[in-house]
Every structure is written in C-alpha cells, then in structure tokens.
Amino acid sequence: MPGSDSGSAQTGRNSGTPVALITGAARRVGAEVARTLHQAGINLALHYRRSKGPAQALADELHASRPDSVFLVSGNLLELDIIPALIEDTVAHFGRLDYLINNASSFYPTPIGEISPAHWDDLIGTNLRAPLFLAQAAAPHLRRSHGAIVNMVDIHADRPLKDHSVYVIAKAGVAMLTRSLARELGPEVRCNGIAPGAILWPENGLSDADRQQMLDHIPLARRGDPADIASTMLFLLRDADYISGQVLAVDGGRSVVS
C-alpha cells in the first residue's frame, strides 16, 4: 500500500476546487508543474517514490500560500498493487479527482548488447505500464468530473535516441496510449500528451560538446525551461476543451529539424 501524509483538515473534500494527481512530483519538471497548477487554484496530490524530503518541502511551500491544498502519496509505480490505492487515497482525501498527470519516468541508456530484463521491466514499467494502469484506476473518477489526463511523452518517441532503445520504445507506447485513451474515455475525459525537448539536462550528465550539438539543432537556439512544460500542462488541463488525443511538442522547434 502506498504511504500518505494527510496533513491538516480536509477542507478540499467535496468542494468545487479541482484536484490533480501528479506522479513524480517532488523534483525537476514535476515540481514546477505542481507550483503552476497550485497557483492556478488546483488542489494537488503529489506522488513521490524516494524523494520524501523534497516532496515534503514542496508541500510545505505550497501550504504556506494556500493551506490544506496538498496531499502527499508515495509508492513504487513498478508495484501494480499500489496503483489503485494511489487513486483511492487521493479521492478519499479530497472527495474528487479531476486531472491525472503521468509525469514519473525512468531514463538511462540501454545500448544493444547490454539490455537486461531488469532494464526492460523498469523502463517499460515506469514510463508505459504505470500510466496505463493509473489511467484505468482513475477513469471512473475522471468520468464523473469530466476531467483530463496528460501524459509526459518525449520527442524521441518519434526520433530514436541512440543507445536508448528501451526508453524510446516505452515513450512511443505512451504516445499511442494517449491517443487510445482519448478514444476510450471520450467524451467525458480528454487525454493529451506533452513531448518535451531539451528542458533540463539529464542528471547522468552530458558533455559540453553533446549539449552544444543538441542546441545547434533547435531553431530557437536555446534550452527550454520547466516553466514551458508547466504552462503547457495548465493549458491542456484547463483551457483546451476541444483538444484530445494530441501530443504537443514543447521543444523549441527541434522536432521539425531533420
């Protein structure tokens, strides 16, 4: 079962305030998405796996501006048994669920000749399997609220990244999952995806030469910012009432360069 921290009184329960569950929300892009949605008046269930300290710090930061608006849930998304509980704990706390953001992801190279079953299970499990089963568990609640799902895809779902075969296979699956969910869950629920380009450099590092080569292929000639993803997320959730089944590239134009 996932862990949770209910915080103080459940003032958001059964209120008209929309609720979003964000996986992998404690750090990097997930944390920026959380700040942006929270500023827009959305209550949040923030999922984390290992980053308890950053998750609690983020919750404290957000509670300082709007008390009782954030709920922490934890768990390993590779363990399918916990996924229904993540959804149910969120609904039990807030009384509703309007938005599901499948942000959590594993990313690392798997060169051909070195791929193991463990690599496959981890990369497929976090990037593709978990979003599917989260969407399935959330679907009844999202139908009731006429909500939305946004999946984090990747521009490399269409443009293979050398030495990352398993990761790009998973993200290609997420792109099709996005389209499939839009058809399966409509008309009550919209589902879209965001395909980031160079937003944050990978934590496992890139050489200066590799970074410059990447920037040379971006028409806007610069790296993006987590705020670019967060503002797109808010648009797709709140303002895009007639958009479903789409994967929107947020990449400075990189995906149009051969």
Question: How do the strands and helices of this protein lay out in sequence?
Answer:
Layout: E1 3-5, E2 19-22, H1 28-39, E3 43-48, H2 52-65, E4 70-74, H3 83-94, E5 99-102, H4 117-145, E6 148-152, H5 165-185, E7 190-196, H6 208-216, H7 226-239, E8 247-250
Parallel strand pairs: 2-3, 2-5, 3-4, 5-6, 6-7, 7-8
Antiparallel strand pairs: 1-4
Attribute tags:
258 residues; alpha/beta; Rossmann fold; 8-stranded mixed sheet; 7 helices; 43% helix; globular
Main sheet specs: 8 strands, mixed
Helix content: 40-55%
Query: What strand line-up does the widest sheet have?
Result: 1-4-3-2-5-6-7-8
Instruction: Write down the domain tally.
Output: 1
Please report the distance between the alpha carbons of the first and last residues. 46 Å
CATH-defined fold name: Rossmann fold
Looking at this structure, what is the CATH superfamily?
NAD(P)-binding Rossmann-like Domain
Extract low-pLDDT stretches. Answer: 6-14
Strand content: 5-15%
SS-based class: alpha/beta
> Secondary-structure element order, as H and E?
EEHEHEHEHEHEHHE
Q: Please tell me how large the radius of gyration is.
A: 18 Å
CATH class: Alpha Beta
Which architecture does the CATH hierarchy give at level 2? 3-Layer(aba) Sandwich
3D shape: globular
Total E-strand runs: 8
Give me the number of helical elements: 7
Tell me, rounded to a whole number, the average pLDDT: 91
